[in-house]
Amino acid sequence: MGGSETPTLNGNAADGSSNQWHLKHKVVETDERDRASGFPRKELGVTWKNLTVEAVSSDAAIHENVGSQLNILQKIRDSRHKPPMRTILDNVHGCVKPGEMLLVLGRPGSGCTTLLNMLANNRRGYANVTGDVHFGSMTAEEAKRYSGQIIMNTEEEIFFPTLTVGQTMDFATRLNVPFVLPKDTSDPESHRQQTRNFLLESMGIEHTHDTKVGNAFVRGVSGGERKRVSIIECLAAKGSVFCWDNSTRGLDASTALDYAKAIRAMTDVLGLSSIVTLYQAGNGIYNLFDKVLILDEGKETFYGPLSEARPFMEELGFICDPGANVADYLTGVTIPSERKIHSEKRQKFPRTAAAIRESYEASPIYPRMTAEYDYPTSQQAQDKTANFEKAVAVEKHKGIPKGSPLTVSFPLQVAACVKRQYQIIWGDKATFFIKQVTNIIQALIAGSLFYNAPDNTAGLLSKSGTLFFSLLYPTLVAMSEVTDSFNGRPVLVKHKSFAFFHPAAFCLAQIAADIPVLLFQTSTFALILYFMVDLERTAGAFFTYWVIILSTAFCMTALFRAIGALFKSFDDASKVSGVVVTAVFLYTGFQLQKPQMHPWLVWLFWIDPLAYAFDALLSNEFHGKTVNCVGNNIIPSGPDYMNSTHSACSGIGGGRSGKSFVLGDDYLASLSYSHSHLWRNFGIIWAWWVLFVAVTVWATSRWKSPSENGPSLVIPRENSKYVAINPQGDLETQAQSSKEAPSAPEETPSGTEEEGSDSLQAKLVRNTSIFTWKNLSYTVKTPSGDRLLLDNVQGWIKPGNLTALMGSSGAGKTTLLDVLAQRKTDGTITGSVLVDGRPLPVSFQRSAGYCEQLDVHEPYATVREALEFSALLRQSRETPREEKLAYVDTIIELLELKPLADTLIGEVGAGLTVEQRKRVTIGVELVSKPSILIFLDEPTSGLDGQSAYRTVKFLRKLAAVGQAVLVTIHQPSAQLFSQFDSLLLLAKGGKTVYFGDIGEHGQTIKDYFGRNGCPCPPEANPAEYMIDVVSGNNNDDGRDWNQVWLASPEYEKMTAELDGIIADAAAKPLGTVDDGHEFATPMGEQIRVVTQRMNVSLWRNTEYVNNKVMLHIFSALFNGFSFWMVGNSFGELQAKMFAIFQFIFVAPGVLAQLQPLFISRRDIFETREKKSKTYSWFAFTTGLIVSEMPYLVLCGVIYYLCWYYTVGFPGASTRAGATFFVMLMYEFLYTGIGQFIAAYAPNVVSATLVNPLIIGVLVSFCGVLVPYAQIQPFWRYWMYYLDPFNYLMGSILTFTMWGQDVKCKEREFARFDPPSGQTCSQYLDTYLHSPGPGSVANLVNPDATSDCKVCTYTKANDYLRSLNLNEYYYGWRDAGIVVLLVFSSYILVYVLMKLRTKRSKQAE
Predict the structure, then answer these.
(1) Environment class of residue 1404 by beta-carbon count within 10 Å: exposed (0-12), middle (13-18) or buried (19+)?
(2) Strands 626-628 and 100-105, how do they pair?
(3) Per-residue pLDDT tens over the stretch 970-1022
């Protein structure tokens, strides 16, 4: 073993005591136990040479907008250019043997992540990869079957946010229990728990065992703790080669060092190969590695032993400051503004990455390192690899195929996944209960709607409606599966790459977890609905009904899951699921009966699972029944016509001549159904289920992680004329020329900054206010009682002062910033926060800039637009517009955002990089000219050393101009730390440990800690050292540093000074004049600017708009062609009504897209813009509503044109125009409804669960499923009149059908013989002329003496009157009401948005 004899290669830490990890003995014990049990060692090692990776260059992709995507010529022009290739890694080589650790250094974009991907054997998403990588003595191809042994930990943390840390780790350890257990472990479960507890302890997060993991929206563990969970989840995989991509991001310095020591210990003892990339790595961490590899623009500028890296660069002429982070120094040598050169090497030092690489290849280190590359062919490697293969075979459970990378057997995988599936459901109890409650409410409403349906023909439609509804509701609920499919996908892909389980196990687990949930849902629904409607009261009939509904629920859940699994993006899947829902409902056979279907679309009936279920339900209900005809279904009726042989049924399928009743089986036959199909159909439903499950398993196995091509800049088409799009080559040459420019600027370390600051001073805002806080405490309520997060914190910030706020993870740094910036909406705050000794002014929230830790931006805005938006809305109303925009240019230059000004911000991963987004966040706050102070929450985490230094240097500039700046900061290097003036240091629980000056190179603080018995070693970084001391890692006496501080003379001096400052400032006139306005700009201007931004954002959001339009085109054509040219017979009156009814169902598909967009916008507003008082909730809501309108008009026109004429509605302009007007109003109506649901919904999932309930209720009471006369009195007098869909249907029905004649088809006539000796007209005389159903009937053959033919209606108006549409003016009356309802639904959006908007807490 290479590493274990000499734990450190560098001399300065040779004592080794402080470098030992405190749990190393446990690793050694485990290893010795495994050796004693006779397990072979798992040692591989990685060797790679001539590795070159290319990807499609994404430097300047054009983002089309709604208009430009239709430009065909442009498309043809673009398709001629081949996409340029960009080399990410250029001829990289290296070797990490078992027991070695390699540190890969490089700035963002230099190819570090790509190299790790190659070494973890992930090659997806790269255009081509050449060169060879060997794992032990295996090639990369052979190593694929060991994917669970070659693990990469990515920068993102991907988890199910509602699981606790313990559950997450249980899952990971369950799937890695070896088959053969080591000695002295009794059973697999205790072995697993031992592993889990060790892992939690290794990163010091045992206390989080029962806390949710959380994410940006679900409260959970802190960011640093979440990072540590992702670290131990990787370790649970028990791999042999580990790649760690920037795994210390968001950890404070002492935790990061602990992590590095842990990896060192495990690497040494277990013979792992660890390859790590780190940003801002302190020297303590740096010194733990064996080798270092430096990448710059994909070129390998150094690779060799750690101890030789710094001497090599110093040899070339680069100076390393004393106490500097060596890692940052090594990556900074190619940045002209960062490097410092020895004076005698000025002329001949290597200026570019290529030049440094040449020097390296000429150095003696190079041949020594390349000699290692025959390691894969050596005997040692072959023996170790053979051992490795044996060791993996020992761990595998029986029944796992030889080539498979999985460890545990398939039944155990399913069991683990099922358990986790329940934990996910239970973790999100709210969603689960919303589902169950809406389910019961929906059943009660439907039950009361069809309450006690009679057994005669009046109840036929109600009972069919009930049965149709029993299928419709479970299908609507199942639609949410599509959303769920995308929520869990990243986690599944990650676990698949760790070889935890086979995707099929996950699919089966989902089904297993469904069983009890669906059983419960179906049973409550069926029990309520079945007996309220009074369907067939026999046990056999009820259980048949129940089992068919249950099967349908399973089948439809599987269908939507399959749809979700088949598509890469949520937009595509929701498009398809919207279309499928429409088709599945229409072709069930209720709205459009089987005999009426057109031959060109009847195949849909045969592939529709619901059609089989509906057939089974109807035949279960009506088989063997006799249904008596009543009302206008029997002709003639009345006191004079009691003899049933001279009357017949009309308007009901299956009626026979001269019979006043219909046999249930005849009725079924007229719909082409039959009782003999019942169990056949039941089988078919399950056959479909099997197919859908198979498709889901197949599609899930093919899921891949989105490829990593590095961040890509996207320029919107309308801005592309401002931005010269350079092919890659030009950029290279520019870079070369700028770097090889004469080395004048090298003389002064920062020539540009000196002259720059004067011009800056003229432009930036000066600030004279002093900000103080005194005895500040903050408590929140938790289930276990009140918790104190800040404990009597005090301090001040003066203009021109750069203050650092530091402390270990979870000390309350962010909490303090939130409280000071007035961003907290709950909890209690006590103490005083003052500006110039006076209470905070109204305008405080917008005159203090606050850059949050998470960069939340409108993804479809360009950088310049984002800054202008902030400037226009937050600078004072007196400033002229030109001046505001000119200031934006100043800030863009200051932040070096000029080259990015016209690119879209985009989402994380597609768009700007982390560091660029961070600069935009700072810019957004700066352009608002904050007049009091600027807060920044961790502006440097996730950045590399150079960017971090640039960011802090820039804050230093601001302070020099007189701004007051307060920054929380993690892991600062010594140089960063020395840029700050004062420090507020917090310990756990928000207790102050120090407040005051830092001093030259941290001298003042070193003195303070030295006096109190903890002197700082000369080489150490004071920042890291303090946090170590305060968090109790270094002092063994475990004293309370908060008490030490409170007893110190510094504390007394500080309190006295604080009181003095407050009194002094209160006596002077105000430094900042408060204009007394809550928002900087008047409401009109706010609305204008906000609406403009929303418009631009939708105009660029082509996916959203295209989906909306495509959905309308498809639904309209589908609806139109299903009801192609409907005639005027009695049955076709109903078909027309259903064609109009079908138009309502364009809403669910559109809402599924509209709400996520609304809610993501609302999140941006609530997390940032509301809190900084940029604009009011009123402007936000207006902007959102107005920006949708043009697209709604477009969609309305499209639907109308595709549908109105295909169904064959009247062409007269009074009718066609009126219908068009109502259809247009409906577009606004359902959008308003969707937006007010979204305005109040806590998240997207709950919105999608409320939708089916609201739409279901509105559809039920609009008078289609149950005619007005049959609605229960309880609902009839209020619900019916409140229902917007009722007026929508009423107006369109009136406009399209009023005044038409009804011509019955042969099978629709009531046929009977008159008593002998009478003609038909004589026999029916009283019937036709007395008020009642007869007055509207139409006798076709008055003079016949046998076989009278009577049609139920003469005119369509008569049919409409049965729907409570009594006059033509009702059409316009209803249209007017629809318009009123549109306004009221939009008013509701405002009301609910206002209810959500809470006030921020003030200090009491």
Answers:
(1) exposed
(2) unpaired
(3) 778 888 888 899 999 998 888 999 999 988 878 888 889 888 888 888 777 88
